[in-house]
Amino acid sequence: MRSVDVIIVGASLAAAAAAKRLVDAGLETLIVEKLELPRHKICSGILSPRGYRFLIENFGPLPAQTLHEPTSCRGVTFHFPSMVSMPMDFFGGTTPHLHRKYSDHWAIQRSGAEVQDQTSLLSLEDHGSHVEVTIRKKGGETTTVRARYVIGADGPSSVVRKTLYPEYNKKIPWFFVGQKFHEIIDCPLDEEYFHFWFHPKLGHYTWSHARDGRQIVGVGYKRGDNFQRRHEYVKSYLEDKHGVKLKPADPDHEGCAENFGPSLINRYVLGKGNVLLTGQGAGFLNMIGEGMSCALHSGAISGESIIEAISRNKPVEDTYKRMIVSEIHHTTDQWNPLMIAFGRPHEADFPAALMALSLPDRIKVIKDIWNFLLLYKEFKWGRQIARASLERLFQGTYSSQRWW
Ligand SMILES: Cc1cc2nc3c(=O)[nH]c(=O)nc-3n(C[C@H](O)[C@H](O)[C@H](O)COP(=O)(O)OP(=O)(O)OC[C@H]3O[C@@H](n4cnc5c(N)ncnc54)[C@H](O)[C@@H]3O)c2cc1C
């Protein structure tokens, strides 16, 4: 049986960051990815300034192939039912508009780790001294590889997480996000921004932006609703209210399930024994669904935790739970109302943009945000967010009792 130091499941950004740390420390690291590389990843590709800094510092300047047109993004524009719009620029200038198929592959290659694509994780068994990982190459044999540690960087529907906590998927609400691509007849939405609607009638997550000469219209809602109907409604809303005239959608629409929610309420799944979880699989997701920067940072910390655990001969689970605290603060602070009001958890200045509005518009926006939040009432997150915010205020941190 082959033995390696670490197996990482999923050739994602979290994986690239973890692998970079491990390979730099001289550990034999194998990444297994179920799809053929470079693989497609549904994503808007809007990178936060923090994510951008991480990529440059760790992997170097981005090649042109890793970008979509327009190649950069200036910031985010929030739109409200009262027809107030608030553009907000990212701090520190524009960021790249990533083409995930190529950016992720580039980062994985730059990590220096060995990669086996078209290879799925089937199961894993933690024996204390090592983990036996069973994988299958598409159309090929099933093999078992022995690793000292495993990192699950396999995204929202993580199989690694399911192996450790089979009940988890039933415990959280699931959302569907889907996007369609349209040839543009006329689009007054500024293509330098990512556009997001705080509109309860449009859905839980509604967005639009330009990509490679087409306009994306995206909708997110509780799983079980009808994508076609939701999308049609948003498309006609954009036409009626914003003058966005689009041709019928091209055939290449796409969607996926999202575990949106855990980071709001300080619920993270960090792993067990010698198996760590990172990225969105662990629950890391920032405000308005920005998940790349926290995938990169949590991924790097998972790799660093393994190095630390080896060098100090300590259990990796405890080490990771200690070292990941800074990233949990960073992510959960983004949803913490006290931090939003009095701190600066985001990378675009929402309070300043709000104060730049006239007083009547400010009142409209606050009412609209409140009505939008009521859409989420059924998930009963409000009390949990309030409790987490008070913990952060009085204890300086969030409760680790809520991390698995
Ligand atoms: C529509 C949409 C738009 C988004 N827009 C943005 C945005 O603009 N900006 C932003 O920052 N974030 C955005 N996100 C979120 C972002 O894409 C994710 O948070 C981020 O990609 C999570 O990264 P990850 O490293 O955790 O895993 P992922 O990128 O999800 O990668 C997981 C990898 O694991 C592989 N895998 C899964 N199961 C197995 C298995 N059993 N065996 C082997 N491999 C496996 C998958 O094929 C995949 O390659 C968006 C998400 C969606 C759905």
Written overview of the protein:
- This protein is α/β, with parallel strands linked by helices and 404 residues long.
- The protein has a domain at 2-68 and 92-171 and 261-331: 3-Layer(bba) Sandwich (FAD/NAD(P)-binding domain).
- Helix content is 35%, strand content 27%.
- The protein has 13 helices and 18 strands.
- It has helices spanning 13-24, 49-59, 100-111, 159-164, 168-171, 227-242, 292-312, 316-323, 325-333, 337-342, 350-355, 359-374, 382-395; strands at residues 2-9, 29-32, 67-73, 75-79, 85-89, 95-98, 114-116, 119-126, 131-137, 142-152, 175-186, 193-197, 205-211, 214-222, 245-249, 254-258, 271-272, 275-277.
- The strands form three sheets. Strands 1, 2, 7, 8, 9, 10, 17 and 18 form an eight-stranded mixed beta sheet that branches. Strands 4, 5, 11, 12, 13, 14, 15 and 16 form an eight-stranded mixed beta sheet that branches.
- Helix 1 (13-24) packs parallel to helix 3 (100-111), helix 1 packs parallel to helix 7 and helix 2 (49-59) packs across helix 7.
- The longest helix is centred in the last third of the chain and has 21 residues, at 292-312.
